[in-house]
Amino acid sequence: DHVEERAIPIIGHVHTIQAVAAKASTCEVAGNIAHYECTGCHRLFSDANGENQLEQEDVIIAALGHDWGEWVVTTPAQVGVKGVETRTCARDNNHTETREIPALPYPTRDDDGVSVVEATATQGIAKDVAALFEQAKALFEQAKTANGKVELTAGNLKLTFNAAAVNAIGGSAASLTANVLTENFGIVDLDGIQAVIEINFEGATFANGSVKVELPFATAVPSGKVAKVYYINGNDKTDMNAVFADGKVTFETNHFSKFAVVFEDATTPTPVDPTPSEPEITPNTEKGGLSGGAIAGIVIAVVAVLAGAGVGCFFLLKKKGGATAGADSAEQPAQAQDEQESEQPEQTEEGAKSEDSDEQ
């Protein structure tokens, strides 16, 4: 298994020697010393007669490598946008190297104790919101750390992600695209469409969070119509309970998709009688049920019993109070008691007993 090899000169070979000029090394490319090479066998020599053979490593000069200078800011960082700094090789100023500078933090404001991080772009919704969301990855991380909200404003579309949505999105590889259509809506089974908001979100969910969508909308609602925003899902539509006020439309959603702003016929609510009549009671007399008169009698009797209970209570209290006043008050004539009881609309059980004793 132990093998050793050596070159055997080509029998009868005559070297054709060619001079190879020296070449200086650069930062990235190796150079070589001046030497000679046989064009037939490609052996290297230090002399023109081909007598002093050289190896490849004998003629190679290694690359020098870069001699980098200091880092210099060439593109300053902005809010939400990373910057760039560059350094240049001292041996060759055509050789440069760049690296990113972290984006500046987004401005925040306090909203009822919640930190709100804002990002704004103004060149147009379709163009800006995707790039803005991509730039805002750091914004979501910043807001997530502060348990705050995120506002993205692209053109005239404003999206506000609450803290729960921010916590779900922060650190994810999500992407967002949006557009607002004022024609060619692509919805054939819905009349009165004024605008369509298309928002697509991929790579994450809102979990338990939500997003408030705001869009300018100052079109006057025709007489007999109402303005609505519907979530469109195939042939189904869901009322988003949008608010139209202050020249804009606002609604909240826990998912993104296609939303249509429409004018539809106003529905007239059914009038309600402020003094509805009591339902008539019609007892079933065929099965031994009580008649209307009997029911009325029961009601009257209950009222009478309650009234009698009240009178009895009054008498008991009065009698008790009289007993403490003196012995004379305890001996009331039966006639006086009869007169008092005759003045009451109903008799108590005690009054009835008194009359029976008098008659006896």
What keywords describe this structure?
seven-stranded mixed beta sheet, 360 residues, disordered C terminus, alpha+beta, 21 strands, five-stranded antiparallel beta sheet
Largest sheet: 7 strands, mixed
Number of helices: 7
Number of beta strands: 21
Give me the side-by-side strand order of the main sheet. 10-11-12-13-16-20-19
Class by alpha and beta content:
alpha+beta
In what range is the share of β-strand residues? 25-35%
Distance between the termini: 148 Å
What would you call the shape? elongated
Order of helices and strands: EEEEEHEEEEEEHHEEHEEEEEEEEHHH
Description:
This protein has helices at about 55-60, 125-135, 135-145, 165-170, 290-325, 335-340, 350-360; strands at about 15-20, 30, 35-40, 45, 55, 60, 70-75, 85-90, 95-100, 110, 115-120, 150-155, 155-160, 175-180, 195-200, 210-215, 225-235, 235-240, 245, 250-255, 260-265. By secondary structure, the chain is an alpha+beta fold. Strand 7 (about 70-75) and strand 8 (about 85-90) form a beta hairpin. Helix 3 (about 135-145) crosses helix 4 (about 165-170).
